[in-house]
Design goal:
alpha+beta
């Protein structure tokens, strides 16, 4: 079964706590996987709003697994340690995954570009046009791509695109290609980008 949902959690952290936080997130990701999520990506926001914040993205095939994961978190020492001083959660959103691609079997992920947008057409037309543009990412070095719609929290109803890469050079190459693409122009006619940021990936479980 393919992943259908992503839960994105942002947390404020002091720069002095970054090493400690990142050392505990792998254990927390293992707890999440054991309790029902299919994959977990975590790291630090490098650009955009909330620069310097920690971020964790958990992927699910079924949303009912979310309850089991957060119940398991309450018993996790790493979670308790993080919540009693190192981190302060500022946002948690649930997003549907309408498109989900992995372009390699075991990709090495170093950066994820997250783009948020307001839709200017039907969800079907927007998703189809994005699917037609996926080759722009695949052909220029992207390793994974996820696209869907924010269900909860701030910016509910907006669309979210997350694309992971192994290098900044591939990000640059991708956006050079997008600038010249008719498929990209069609996407931009249906989506108005209102935020974009880059995650420095610390790990994927």
């Amino acid at each position: 079964m393919a992943d259908k949902y992503a839960v994105i959690t942002l947390a404020k952290m002091e720069a002095s706590n970054r090493v400690d936080v990142m050392s505990k997130l792998p254990d927390l990701a293992d707890v999440s996987r054991d309790a029902g999520s299919t994959r977990v990506l975590f790291g630090t926001l490098m650009t955009g709003l909330n620069t310097g914040s920690a971020i964790m993205i958990q992927f699910f095939e079924e949303l009912n697994k979310l309850e089991s994961v957060y119940s398991a978190f309450s018993d996790s020492k790493s979670y308790q340690d993080l919540m009693t001083g190192s981190l302060s959660i500022t946002r948690r959103n649930i997003t549907t995954l309408d498109l989900s691609y992995s372009f390699e079997n075991a990709p090495s992920l170093k950066y994820t570009v997250m783009s948020r947008a307001v839709g200017c057409g039907s969800q079907k037309d927007i998703t189809n046009s994005m699917d037609e543009a996926v080759h722009l990412f695949k052909d220029n070095g992207a390793k994974t791509l996820r696209f869907g719609r924010i269900m909860t929290g701030e910016n509910t109803g907006d669309y979210l695109l997350g694309v992971s890469y192994s290098s900044m050079a591939d990000i640059e190459k991708t956006y050079d290609a997008i600038a010249e693409s008719e498929d990209a122009k069609k996407v931009y006619s249906l989506l108005g980008i209102n935020q974009r940021g880059i995650i420095q990936v610390a790990g994927v479980k």
